Amino acid sequence: GPLHVSAGSAVYAYGSNYPVHGSSASYLVDVMFQAAAAPLTVISRTPVSGASDQSVSAAVKATFSTSLASGYTVVVKNGATVLAGTAVLSTDGKTLTFTPAAPLPAGATISVVLGQLISTQGATLADVSWQFSTADGSATPSNYSMFGALVPDTASNTDDSAAIELGVAFTPSVAGSVTAIRFFKGAGNTGAHTGSIWNAAGVRLATVAFTGETASGWQSATLTTPLQLTAGTTYTVSYFAPNGNYSSTSAFFATPFSHGPLSVDAGSNGRYFYGSSGGMPSNSWNATNYFVDLVFTVPTTP
């Protein structure tokens, strides 16, 4: 277990003195040791706190650092009205998912409170609560991007001209399809660019070449066949910059980010990978946003 004895570390002393004489023998002296419980923390929430324009079929879930014990409570409300539904814990005990009995109300502020949170090791966590809002059903757009018309702080990192793949890991809260990949281009970001979608295992699910690019600004390439994505599953969208000089905003993902059904976790996001042929970007530095995006299409809410 967590207890270790170095070689030759047995000790003894005659009389009632503190044992200081070394030996490689074992005198079968032992302790009963109870390890402290690992702390229980929240790793992620879906939709993220403060998210807007969420689909009425959005998944409501929280992921924890260690397995939950039974006895937890889940309360989901629209104002003072408690919404009926079922809370289920994942097989590993770390993800708690609430499935409403009916679609969430449109144009509403939804509050979530998780209580009685205790790990299987006995660690406790104060109630976890957050809010998000659903889209107005009469005006829900069918196409979403994460960053829209946002622009980076640095258009071109001119001190880095190495070939690099840049991206961001994101999670859709509803099922839908990727119809295009986008990235922001600075004037120094030259060469042939390709966009890709990857699953969490590093498998490339779709790729597209960018053509007819402008000298700078947002670029977009339409997939020949839309790629279907599963709600609640994490993917990475990326593009390959053969001559570097990519765009960036440092610490953009120091806090979670979301727009519509697309959410991005804070911390080790965005992603990059150096290599002459690109590849799945898995490295991260300073929660930097490299302004890689997509067009995500979901059925229009009636």
Structure in a nutshell:
With 302 residues, the chain is mainly β. The chain has no helices and 23 strands.
List the keywords.
4-stranded antiparallel beta sheet, 7-stranded antiparallel beta sheet, mainly beta, Immunoglobulin-like
The rounded distance between the terminal residues' Cα atoms is 57 Å
How do the helices and strands follow one another from N- to C-terminus?
A: EEEEEEEEEEEEEEEEEEEEEEE
What is the name of the CATH class of the largest domain?
A: Mainly Beta
Secondary structural class: mainly beta
The whole-angstrom Rg is 25 Å
CATH-defined superfamily of the largest domain: PHR domain
* Strand element count: 23
Give the count of structural domains.
Answer: 2
H/I helix tally = 0
Tell me the β content: 35-45%
The name of the CATH topology of the largest domain is Jelly Rolls
Summarize the biggest pleated sheet.
7 strands, antiparallel
Shape: flat
Low-confidence stretches: none
Can you tell me the CATH architecture of the largest domain?
Sandwich
Mean pLDDT: 92
Instruction: State the helicity in percent bands.
Output: under 10%
